[in-house]
Amino acid sequence: MAFHLVSGGCGFVGKNMVRRLYNTTDDKILFVDNLMVGKHPTTWLDAPKVAQYKDLEIYGEDRRLFFLKDDFRFLVRKMTDDPDYLKNHYGLDVEQFHDVYHFAAIVGGRAMIDGDPMVVALDLSIDAEFFYWVCKHKPVRTLYPSSSAAYPINLQTESGAIALKESDIDFNNMGQPDMTYGWSKLTGEFLAKIAAKHYGVSVTCIRPFSGYGEEQDLTYPIPAIAMRVAKKESPMEVWGTGKQGRDFVHIDDVIDCIHVAMDKISDGTAINIGMGRLTSFLEIIDVLTDIAGYKPPIKQLLDKPVGVHSRYCDMTYVNEELGWKAKITMEEGMRRMYNAQLAKLEKES
Ligand SMILES: NC(=O)c1ccc[n+]([C@@H]2O[C@H](COP(=O)([O-])OP(=O)(O)OC[C@H]3O[C@@H](n4cnc5c(N)ncnc54)[C@H](O)[C@@H]3O)[C@@H](O)[C@H]2O)c1
């Protein structure tokens, strides 16, 4: 039976991956999160907690899910120093992890990326410890999530925006990524390539554009706007002019694409994950208010941080070389988001 590891396993992408692995395989999954942002599994996991050994929590009647609340840097350091740490300390028999998904990171949305860039820079230390361990442990497959923020910002201006192609990041001819977040993701990609080339590690990098989903925190724009629409707020507030745009992609599609990519890429190559479509925040509001059946006036909050003007991707490589395309349309995704926020409001009242 394969054993997988998910870091940041209680965050937005991490918990979706934990659930997917648990529901679609018979494998064991160890997930780790310091709960700095993520929520404890008892608040979102369907499987019940069935046991605890030291600080290791065990979930599911079939005892396949293992949770550790820890700083991932400390855990990988312990596993690096003692390759049998999990066995010696917790009795977990893991000679080699099959898939390792590394989602532990300080992310936090635009307010954090612009507002506290030095805390985001701690991602460099998380990734450095991670890759140091990966090069020793050599899991069967490793997933490193980079980001669309790694792309040069001069290609994302109002007048000069293009659909970003994978080749627009060229380590031999670099542009400037988006703040410390973009720099740390770019550095992570570089480490991934080093791990593959110099240490024989199988690693896949992804550059998700703007992932969204029903359980995403309200500090992110799509759930925040969907909640305001569900409350039928009027006027409808938007950060900046609302004309700035992103490439929104539903989390279910992101998880699907990760697995397609891991089956086909092992040399650290990075691929885009998006719809290949630029959508402004005003268009998002339009779709959501159509669903809700009202049309409020727009109130622009011009003092809020908005980041680059237009960020979207060219999905040609992924469509043609990997044979993958997003399935969930923007309209379907927004309907799910709206219904999820309505359900939250109903639960609260
Ligand atoms: N969500 C997206 O659309 C998107 C887009 C591009 C890239 N990514 C990347 O995917 C990864 C996951 O993103 P997310 O949206 O799930 O973010 P998130 O903030 O929801 O999840 C990150 C999780 O990591 C945990 N964490 C942070 N530091 C930790 C540490 N030192 N030890 C253990 N756990 C720690 C947090 O508590 C949180 O639960 C990140 O690397 C992010 O850069 C996500």
Task: Outline the structure in words.
The model has no long low-confidence stretch (mean pLDDT 97). It is built from 12 helices and 17 strands. The strands form 5 sheets. Strands 3-4-5-2-1-6-7-9-14 form a 9-stranded mixed β-sheet. Helix 1 links the parallel strand 1 and strand 2. It has 2 domains: 235 residues, Rossmann fold (3-Layer(aba) Sandwich); 82 residues, UDP-galactose 4-epimerase, domain 1. It has 349 residues and is an alpha/beta fold. The longest helix is centred in the middle third of the chain and has 21 residues. Bound molecules: nicotinamide-adenine-dinucleotide (NAD). The site of nicotinamide-adenine-dinucleotide has 27 residues, from helix 1, strand 2, helix 2 and strand 10.
